[in-house]
Amino acid sequence: MTEKSEIWKKYGIHICLAGLFAAAFLLRVYRIGSLPDVLQIDEAGIGCNAWNLANYGVDRYLNRFPIYPQNYNGGQSPLYTYCLVLLLKLFPAARLTPGLVRLPALFSSMLVVICGAKLLCMLFGRGRTMLAGTAFLTFCPYFIMSGRFALDCNLMLGCGMLAITLLIRYIQKPTWPALLLCGLGFALTLYSYALSYLILPVFLASLALYMIYTKKISVGRTFVWACEIAVLSAPLILFVVCLLAGLPGFRFLGINILPIAAERMDDLGQTSFWPNVFDCIRITLTNGTYMLDAVDKYYTMYVLSIPFIAIGFVWASADFLRSLKSRHFTCSAVFVLYALAIVVVIGLAGSGYVYRANAIFVCYLYFCLVGIRETLGFLNRYRRMFAAAVCLGYAFWTVVFLRYYFTIYSVADTYTYPNSLYFCPEQEALAETVTFSEEQNVYIDSFFDEYYYFYYPVSPWYKEEVQNAGKPEGERKFCMNVDYNTPVEADSVYMVRKENREFIGKLQSTGLPYETEEFVYYYVFTVPGENDPGRG
Q1: β-bridge mates for residue 393, sequence order
Q2: What is the pTM of this model?
Q3: How many whole angstroms separate alpha carbon 490 and alpha carbon 52?
Q4: Least CB-packed of 165, 364, 422, 479 within 10 Å?
Q5: Which tens digits make up the pLDDT trace of 412-468?
Q6: Bridge partners of residue 517, in order along the sequence
Q7: What is the pLDDT of residues 266-283, one digit of tens each?
Q8: Over 80: is that where the pLDDT of 376 sits?
Q9: Mean pLDDT, all residues of the chain
Q10: Which residues contact 344 (CB under 8 A, 6 or more apart)?
């Protein structure tokens, strides 16, 4: 018995961490190809761009190795796309599937858990607080859900966690290698999401001033640190300059610097600052309207976390202010300044979606743990009873959420027509239309052709050739939108969302014969040609 106790004392923390890491991986990889049960338009766009870049060296708009791949309504941050390109290069026989496209999100989510555990170990020591924080990263809704769908900006959370971990490592062991690794982490974060172009300069400038003020870093090291980040992010700096100055595109070290999505800069500073700030705090603590990364009732980190995050933020802010008076560095400053930088930028740029401010969850984790710690310290006499109640509360919400997410949760059942068109038509219905595509006109109930070319990729020049040549004899006509103006004609196939009663009514009123294949969310109507009585 004594020997077992000694083994547990020596390896117990490692065993618990290994169990949490395994649980985190299973919760993110299980049914990743089918849950969420839709393919969101940005996922389809990333997949099409990555496939074209991996096979032809251009995105789907024929831009050769762009620093900011073009998307249907602007652009996409490069890190996610090029991670997927790497996967397709490593596995050239792999087909584009939702599961494959979501793998970089899964890797980033696991990076959050592993780096988060290391960060907590450095901040709180190897003990219960570290394990509790790792459990938060493993089981809280946002950390699970953001790792299960392919949104380019979701990598900002993983890269940000890595960068903050390397920063704390440098603060505790201020060596040159640690400083350079920290710079590398922040440079990588800049490639994860465009909002980081504003968040990180604000954060790093304020943090550098604070560290110089508290004598935690010298001016010389700060200069080297800034130069390293600037050099590593030079393509992005040139991209931003190109946007702001209205310069034409150019090549830099084999990369195309193109002024893509310039119109997205127009709203910066034009929206209401304080309403944006309050909305950012509200939706990141609860949930927004976008149910792929947070849902009602369960919120981002469960309702129990909200008061602890508030308490932790007040304590950390007070700790930061005290450090300014004493000129003694505190790690609380890192999280307070990072959170403020995120909130200020969102205030200027606007949000509306949790994923735009996802980097703030690094700070929320710290505030929540500090809030729980300070609450337990204040209670003193009832400490164990309160701690037990908190643990039971989180355990209850975790079980209820996991049951809901893996057995009930559905995006496809929630978004109705026409908003459902922002999500992929089910692949089975799409496959049914492909069997006709060389012979008949094909109309698919969706705004975007990225969905079709995700599952059935072609050369990026093919679409351009077809558009320029019109419809050659014997070749299909392809339309990605079905509405009341869509012609109902012989020798055609219509893949129509079931809620699209307007077009279905028009089809029925024509009197033309047609066959119907029913799928979960779609009908596939086949109108035979004049000399074709039907297709069996």
Answers
A1: none
A2: 0.92
A3: 34
A4: 422
A5: 888 877 777 778 777 888 887 877 655 578 898 887 888 888 988 888 887 666 555
A6: 524
A7: 555 556 889 999 999 999
A8: yes
A9: 89
A10: 202, 277
378 shares a domain with 521? no
The pLDDT of residue 124 is above 50: yes
For 169, the token pair is 């490592």
481: left (phi over 0), alpha (psi -120 to 50) or beta: beta
Question: Is 311 inside any structural domain?
Answer: yes
User: Rounded to the nearest 10 degrees, how much is the dihedral formed by the CA atoms of 483, 485, 491, 497?
Assistant: 10
Q: Are residues 207 and 314 in the same domain?
A: yes
Q: Which residue has the tokens 């990364």?
A: 293
Tens-digit pLDDT profile for residues 460-503: 887 666 555 555 444 556 788 888 889 998 888 999 999 899 99
Instruction: In whole angstroms, give the CA distance from residue 484 to residue 347.
Output: 40
CB under 8 Å to 216, separation ≥6 — which residues?
171, 174, 329
- For 7, 139, 275, 287, 529, the CA distances from 401, given in Å and listed in that order, are 34, 9, 30, 14, 51
One domain for residues 438 and 392: no
Q: What are the phi and psi torsion angles at 36 (to 5°)?
A: -60, 150
The answer to whether the beta carbons of residues 78 and 271 sit under 8 Å apart is no
**Omega prior to 104 cis, within 30 of 0:** no
Instruction: Provide the domain limits for residue 176.
Output: 2-30+102-407
Q: Decide the pairing of beta strands 441-444 and 492-497.
A: parallel
| Residue 435: count of CB within 10 angstroms of its CB | 13
**Once rounded to an integer, what is the mean pLDDT over residues 210-228?**
97
User: Is residue 256 within 8 Å of 239, Cβ to Cβ?
Assistant: no
Q: Specify whether 369 is located in the same domain as 346.
A: yes
**Both tokens of residue 140?**
């809280």
Tokens matching residue 517: 């294949």
Give residue-wise pLDDT tens across range 500-530: 999 999 999 998 999 999 998 899 999 987 6
